[in-house]
Amino acid sequence: xxxxxxxxxxxxxxxxxxxxxxxxxxxxxxxxxxxxxxxxxxxxxxxxxxxxxxxxxxxxxxxxxxxxxxxxxxxxxxxxxxxxxxxxxxxxxxxxxxxxxxxxxxxxxxxxxxxxxxxxxxxxxxxxxxxxxxxxxxxxxxxxxxxxxxxxxxxxxxxxxxxxxxxxxxxxxxxxxxxxxxxxxxxxxxxxxxxxxxxxxxxxxxxxxxxxxxxxxxxxxxxx
Length: 224
Ligand SMILES: *Cc1c(COP(=O)(O)O)cnc(C)c1O
What we know:
Keywords: Pyridoxal phosphate. By secondary structure, the chain is an alpha/beta fold. The chain has helices at 3-20, 38-46, 57-66, 86-89, 102-111, 135-143, 166-186, 204-209, 219-222; strands at residues 28-32, 51-54, 74-77, 95-99, 116-122, 151-158, 195-197, 214-217. Helix content is 41%, strand content 18%. It has an 8-stranded parallel sheet. Helix 2 links the parallel strand 1 (28-32) and strand 2. Pyridoxal-5'-phosphate binds at residues 32, 34, 55, 78-79, 159, 200-201, 216-220.
């Protein structure tokens, strides 16, 4: 299949799973281009994807240079960001998906020229190898960000374990949704927390059923 067909298939699957869950709200497809060339990324954009994600500063710079004429693209940074790289990245993006520690929040506060839309990353499964806060630490962490006027917590983000079965995935994504609802209900000025960034190639359909508002899909878009 061509890339344009893959994009159409993923968009259709998003709609199908929204309908299954009786959802009328918006789900944004974020195209993850990190393992792919500029030429391949161009096909994804040509197929109508307006949201693009990279996970390394170098990859972001390369793709943004190539798409300098595309002023309508929305840029997402989805990888772990080292503190010393914050300055290079933070003012170039529209969404940051991996806020997971106070030292990073402090550095963003120091370097950002305007409020940055951030997702707090949550390790819902508790796997030792994964970054992100434990569910129980999410509310205190977000409360502690009050002093940082350059950080706007727009939502929560998670990555599910690669080997989880469907039932487990439903459980992980539901937990993140419930935590999102809990934070949203606090009504914090700096944390509207309306969004859910969850779902990748292997699990985005289940994530949509469980309320994802941003799905981050890479591999599936580029399949031959
Ligand atoms: C690579 C990556 C994705 C996309 O993964 P695929 O399995 O290729 O769809 C999504 N989110 C994050 C954080 C990633 O690093």
